[in-house]
Structure formats: C-alpha cells, structure tokens
Design brief:
Blueprint: H1 3-6, H2 11-33, H3 38-49, H4 51-63, H5 69-79, H6 92-110, H7 114-131
Helix pairs in contact: 2-3, 2-5, 2-6, 4-6, 4-7, 5-6
C-alpha cells in the first residue's frame, strides 16, 4: 500500500494489524529457541506481547533515538488514538504506548517495509534478552 492509502486508515486499524505482526515475530523467536510444551510457549509469548512489555520496549527505542522521525510520528498517532481502554493488567499509559508500537508495526507491514520491522523487532528482542 502507498503511504497515501495508509493515511486513510485509522491508527487502531493499523494497530490491529501490527498486533498480529508483532505477536507472530515473538512466536517465531520463542519457537525457534527451543522445543517445549505449548503451555510454556504460550506463557513466554504472553510475557513479550503484554502492554507493559511493549510500552517499556518502545520507551527504550525512543530514549535511544532508534526510531526515525516518521516512525515516531506514526507511534504518536497510534498512542494518541481515541477509544483505547486499558485492560486490567496494565495502566492506560502502558496500553496507549503499546497501541502506538503496534500501529507502527502495522504501518510498516502494510507499506512493505519488512526489513525495518525485523530491525526494530531485533532491537526490542536484544534489549529483552539483555535484561533477563
């Protein structure tokens, strides 16, 4: 899709797509790391796709200046989208930041920038591995 076409989409629609892209990348990483029971796979995935983790990840990306101006704008667009209500396991701020990250992943996916998605995801993943 062109950027003009994507600009017609709601940030929550982009986040809907980005949620699937992000979770697929997490699942690929976890499954490729070891063969383990499905319950363990699920638990490890949930740790990395929750709003709290995603909010922390995007905060680090922003603090380190690892997102372009365009990417920061897309993130802010998603973060500031209306109609977002937080689930019981995160704050509204965390949920909004996670929505912003998912919006960015959705935008990049639909615009065909898979290399950049992988690059950003690897930065997030390496940071997570370093913390553990």
């Amino acid at each position: 899709m062109t950027e003009k076409e994507l600009s017609q989409y709601s940030p929550l629609t982009l986040a809907f797509m980005g949620d699937a892209v992000y979770e697929t990348l997490v699942r690929e990483k976890i499954v490729s790391s070891a063969n383990m029971p499905v319950r363990k796979l699920h638990d490890l995935t949930i740790e990395k796709v929750c709003a709290e983790f995603q909010a922390s990840a995007v905060k680090r990306l922003l603090e380190k200046g690892l997102l372009t101006e365009e990417e920061q704008e897309i993130f802010r667009h998603g973060r500031n989208a209306g109609g977002v209500t937080a689930p019981k396991h995160s704050t509204v701020g965390e949920y909004r930041a996670a929505t912003g990250l998912e919006c960015l992943f959705g935008f990049l996916h639909l615009s065909g920038r898979t290399d950049r998605i992988r690059e950003i995801f690897e930065l997030i993943w390496q940071d997570a591995v370093t913390e553990e």
